[in-house]
Amino acid sequence: MEFLKPMVRFHLPFATLEETTFRMGSMYLISQYFLNLNDRLADWKLEGLDKVYSAVGQVNRDFSNRLADAADKDANINALVNLDCFATMIPFQAEEMFKKIERYFSAYLK
Questions:
Q1: CA distances (Å), origin 109, targets 68, 103, 104, 105
Q2: What's the count of helices (H) and strands (E) in the chain, helices before strands?
Q3: Span 31-55, mean pLDDT?
């Protein structure tokens, strides 16, 4: 979960999937910028996102199982399941969403 520290620092409560995907992509690309500055191989194609969010999904599932053992009601578990849905959807949604918003970056692409 350490990979998500920047997302925590700039957290947006009740963010949509689109907002979360944008923030995630931005966070990941900034991390690659810092890798590049330090003469390390950067992943400009976002191929490592699947690995990051796969690990997040595993943590969410494990935590959900622990919570299910401790909780009397489903509200806490349901909240975690909703959060995990974001983590699961982001790698699949990212490329499509980036294509949809590319036009907003037209000034940079001239």
A1: 49, 9, 10, 7
A2: 5, 0
A3: 92
